[in-house]
Every structure is written in C-alpha cells, then in structure tokens.
Amino acid sequence: MRYTGLIERYQSKLPVTDATRPISLGEGNTPLIQLQNIATMLGKKHKIYIKYEGLNPTGSFKDRGMTMAVTKAVESGSKAIICASTGNTSASAAAYAARAGIKAFVVIPEGKIALGKLAQAMIHGAVIIQIKGNFDDGMRLVKEVAEHAPVSIVNSINPFRLQGQKTAAFEIIEELGNAPDYHYLPVGNAGNISAHWMGYKEYHSDGKSNHTPKMVGYQAAGSAPFVIGSMVDNPETIATAIRIGHPQSWDLAQKVIKESNGWFDARTDAQILTTQKLLTEKEGIFCEPASSVSLSGAIADIKTGKIPQKSTIVCTLTGHGLKDPDTAISQCTDAIININPTIDEVRDAILNNM
Amino acid sequence: MRYTGLIERYQSKLPVTDATRPISLGEGNTPLIQLQNIATMLGKKHKIYIKYEGLNPTGSFKDRGMTMAVTKAVESGSKAIICASTGNTSASAAAYAARAGIKAFVVIPEGKIALGKLAQAMIHGAVIIQIKGNFDDGMRLVKEVAEHAPVSIVNSINPFRLQGQKTAAFEIIEELGNAPDYHYLPVGNAGNISAHWMGYKEYHSDGKSNHTPKMVGYQAAGSAPFVIGSMVDNPETIATAIRIGHPQSWDLAQKVIKESNGWFDARTDAQILTTQKLLTEKEGIFCEPASSVSLSGAIADIKTGKIPQKSTIVCTLTGHGLKDPDTAISQCTDAIININPTIDEVRDAILNNM
Predict the structure, then answer these.
(1) Helix (H, G, I), strand (E, B), or coil: what is residue B125?
(2) Is the pTM of this model over 0.90?
(3) Cα torsion at A193, A197, A203, A204 (round to 10°)?
(4) Is A25's CB within 8 Å of B285's CB?
(5) CA-to-CA distance for B324 and A68, rounded, in angstroms?
(6) Phi and psi angles of residue A62, each rounded to the nearest 5 degrees, phi first
(7) Quick one: what percent of chain B has pLDDT higher than 90?
(8) Which of A176, A153, A137 is nearest to A51 (CA)?
(9) Could you report the predicted ipTM of this complex, rounded to two decimals?
(10) What is the pLDDT of residues B292-335, one digit of tens each?
C-alpha cells in the first residue's frame, strides 16, 4: 500500500479527524540505520542506530512538524503561513505551503543571512520579508502580525509542530519492537527532544514498549544554555541549526530530562566536526554539522563508561549533509591525485592508495 | 519491523543468497507522491504520481544500483571499487564503499569538473584520480585497470546495478496495487528505463500486476540520441545528469520501447526548467533539472491528447534538488522585500503579496 505521510499513518494519535485533509509530501518513514564500522571501533559492546531524518522531503526533521502545522492552518481557513526562521524551518514551511497552494512568508533580519540559507524557501516560492532589525525583532513581529493579518504562525510556538515530530518515536518503537535504552538528540530550541519524549510516553501507555528511554540532549559548547543552566545571549557554533541561546521549549525539555532520567551535555565544534567526518567516511552517512552532535555525545558517553554494555542507543541526525556541503568540504584535506592517462599510472595510483 | 534496505526486502528477486552480507544505507522505500495542484491545472483527467528518488540516502536513484554493486564486490573479495563518473554515481559509490569499509576510486578528466560536483565523493573519503585526458579516456582506463588491479568497476556496465534499480518498479506496483499505465523516466545512459522494465516484467510474470506500463523515455533536446536515432558527439544541456551522447544501454532501451509500446521524445532546456519551477512552487517537490524532464514530457503528452483520460502515470524524479541548488536559485526572479520592523509595514507586506 502506498505510504502517504505521517498524518494518515498515525491519524489516531494526532489532533486530526476523518474530515482533515492532510498536506503531505510523504514525510516520515525514514530509515533507522545500525552503525557497523563505528560500533566495531567502539568495541561492539552496544547497538547504535542512526535515525536519518535528513531523508525527509526537504532534507530535515522539520517536515514532520510542518505537515501537521500546515494541515491545521489550512483546516482553520488560513491562506498563508509565516515564520521567522532562516534555515530548515523556512525551507519546510515554503515547501508545504506550496503543496497546500497557500502563501508562505519568511521574515529575516537584514544583512544577517547568507542567501544560500534561504535558497530552498525562495525556490519554493516563499515571500522573503527583510526587516531593518535583528532576529528577535523578527520573532516579535511574527507573533504580533498574526493578530493583524490572516496568517498562521508555523514557528515552534505552533503546538501542532511537536505533535507531528513525536511520530519519530513511534517509528523507532515499531522498528526496534521496543523503545531504545537511550535516545540522543541535538538540542537547540529543545522542541524535538520534547516531542520525542511525548511520543515515547504515548506508545508506552499504549503498551507498544515495555519501557521509555533515557533522553539525552547534546548542545554545542558555544551555545549550551541547558548545560550552563541559563540563557546564552551570544551563542556561537559552527552547528548553525542549534545556535540558539534562548530555547523556546526550556521548561518542557527540563521536564523531559528529569522524567526520563536523562541528561544534557555539550561537545565542542571540533568534536562535532570530527564526528561528522567519522560518519561520512566510516559509515557513508552524510549529515549537517549540528546533527552529528548526538552521535558525538553518545560516543563520548560510551568511552567514559556512562552507558552500560549491551545498551541500545538511537541517535537522531536532524538534517542531510547536502543542506550545508561547504562546511564538510572544508574538512577534506586529501589532495586530488594528478596523473597521465596510462594504465600503469592509474594502477600505481590505486595500489599506492589501497 | 525495521526496514533494512532493498536487498533484504527483495532478496528472492535479486542475485544474492542467504550468505550475502548486504551493504545498505536504507536505500529504496521512497515515497510515491500524487500530484494535486498540477493535476488540477491539467483538468484532473489523469492520476499523476511522482516517484521521489531524491530521498535515497545520497540524494539520487543511484543508491539502488550501488547497494547491489558494492554488496557483490565485497562478496567477491574486492577491497576497492572504481568508477569514471563525476556526478551522482561517484557520490553513491563513495558512500557505499565507506559503509563497506573498502576504498573508492573516482577517475575524472582534468579541468572539466566543477569541484562542487565531486563534493560528496570527497566527503565520503573517495580517492580522486585526475587524468590528463578526457572523459572517454577515463572510462577506457577504468575498464582496463580492473584487469591489472584488485578493483571492481561500479560504472553502469556493472550488471548488478540494473538488478538493484529494478526494485523501484516493484515498489510502485506494491504502492498502486498494479502497474501504472505509463511510466515516464529521464533518459541519459538509459540504464534506469531498462531496469524498470525488467522489474515490471518480473512482477507481471509473478502475477503482481495484470499489465505492464508503456515506458516513455524523455531526453534533453540537446542530448537526445534516442530521439535522433544515432549517437551525439557533443551533447549540451543544463540537465547535466542526462548529458550523455553515447548511451551505454542503447540496445536494451530500444527493446524496452518496442516491447512496452512506449516512445522516446525530448524537451528543451527551457521546458525542463519551467517544469522544475512548477514542481517546486505548485507541489513543494524540489528535484534536479534532469529529473523534471520526465514530468515535463508527461505534461506535454497530456496536453496534446496522447495520453487517454483516466490513465495512471508515474514520473520518476531521479535526484534531489539539493544536489544542484544553484541552477534553481538562478530561476528565482522575485525580489526580497525590504521594510522597517514595524507591525504596519509587515502587515502591508503580507497583504500586498497574498
């Protein structure tokens, strides 16, 4: 049977009715890939799985929340959506608005945004509104304008976003036949870790798993409010997707860690990039820098002995590497080999590099 | 149950045994998305589906063939693979070699390749061998070197590639409950249309469909040997993934068209780009330029009345738009709107652009 997206798949667990018309691009249903070479390097004492969310339609996990947010916006009669994000959220919002046949508006601060970051939003026909102000001004305006214009906000304050995102936990339980022992996630706004916990708790109540996982949230060291215990005014990290100093889901995420017996911790930019390279070169999996912080944290915790042997660990990779190839290429230090087009030189180039 | 890639899924239909160790990244299982807004524009007289192959792990359909080619290379004892491609094939080869823990060599002609095209291959740790010669020299050397060095060729002359690619037809029959009436594909080397036809015929023999589709191959007008009826020495098109003048699978593909009662035709670069833009703006689906030639052809054939009403049509999109965002961005003509950060100006920007 044709897979038609997560709203139809999980209708009974989502705030929709039979009358709801899902706006879907076939999001969700992403592969859960067991690590092999990295697991061997770590002594094969754990089962480590990657939930590869970069294989959602626009290349990031944001599509899970956006299918819900846009479906509900259309259901309530909205002819337009708006958000203040400049990265993966705006790409997803623009694509789902296109699919729904409604308008998407993206508010950005003047001069602060690389055009490349907005590429997907522009390509999907979103209207880009650039303001003479900073990102906080943008967010404030987006919140206010919904009272003055017929637009629905699809930033993470939209409650339907987390409802869609919780389905990743459903999939993992179905794939493993149970919840994992540990679930590692990159943490920026902290919505995704909260959504996963909601999903794990719901399926546990339904008897689909016999336990819930410890939730572990990893941040970038230069942008780690949950690790520090207070907001960060000038977050800095190469992992732009989690460069957030004032997380929207602060209280929710604190509760997740407490309830699940998990923890927050951080990795440096150098450690994040090392793990990204390890994943691409040893497992063939290419992700955004921010994504690799989850596995980077898991590897660190395995090495210190914090994770008991034989544990099952899931690490979420939030976005595909093709979202930000430049950072990855800058990590490639191997030179291109230049030779003459003779069989001897090609053979030597191969044999010298086996 | 966890989806572990197409070799385990279709083991009984592929040249593997229980002893085969699949090298997989969770490829296949891509969404089949029904067009809505474009179908409405065309009068809703047909059911048009998109097989979104850009949601394979490295962003293109090549992963279906590469999982087979690398699995069989490892099974035969190879410690390295080699190919002469510079685009999606090299990206896929490098990723699966990384997953297998073997070496990948990519042979490229000097000075003819934009570095960005090789980004994925480099990131996954492939060894890039640049020769003082052209692409034909590279292909000849790759073929010869396999006799002189312990490497397996994974170019499209590798017969296992088509075996893996045929599984897309299996998925479509399972998704629709039958074969479509028409299947449109972009045609470059012509391996993929041949592989699909193999898959459709096998499932038809197995009783899983009650008919086979007409296979329709579309080329770019500047690179259309099948339409012209002879090889093209200097193919030119913006759709680089199908810029091939001397297709490897010439005889196979001619037979497909004859057996299936299908046809070859071509679209201009302008028409290809128009369809790419239509898909992104009206359906939220972003693909490479070469991918959109399949839908572009289907739309043209619907408009001329060549396709009977109520037909079911599948169009394959071979690669994700994130593979080549620059071409798409250059099509975006809408300006960014610059305003002051006041609620009145934001509201006006929205209302003026609804």
Answers:
(1) coil
(2) yes
(3) 140
(4) yes
(5) 28
(6) -60, -25
(7) 83
(8) A176
(9) 0.96
(10) 999 999 999 999 999 999 999 999 999 999 988 888 888 887 77
Note the pLDDT of residue A112.
67
CA angle B344–B350–B352, rounded 5-degree value: 95
DSSP codes joined into one string, A183-212: EEEE-SSSHHHHHHHHHHHHHHHTTS-SS-
At residue A154's C-alpha, the angle toward residues A152 and A159, to 5°, is 100
First vs last C-alpha separation in chain B: 45
Sorted by sequence, the CB contacts under 8 Å of residue A320 that are 6+ apart come out as A54, A55, A59, A60, A286, A287, A288, B59, B322
Smallest Cβ–Cβ distance between A131 and the set B33, B107, B340 belongs to B340
B26: left (phi over 0), alpha (psi -120 to 50) or beta: left
Q: Report the residue count for chain A.
A: 354
CA atoms within 13 A on the CB side of B231: 8
Reduce the DSSP state of residue A325 to 3 states and report it. Answer: helix
Is A214 in a helix, a strand, or coil? strand
A&B contacts, CB < 8 Å:
279
Query: Around Cβ A90, how many Cβ atoms within 10 Å?
Result: 30
Among candidates B3, B101, B149 on the partner chain, residue whose Cβ is nearest the Cβ of A37: B101
- The helix (H) or strand (E) run that includes residue A65 is helix A62-75
Question: With contact defined as beta carbons under 8 Å apart, do A307 and A313 qualify?
Answer: yes
Amino acid letter at A106? V
Decide if B12 contacts B170 (C-beta within 8 A): no
- CB-nearest to A129 from B132, B328, B337 is B337
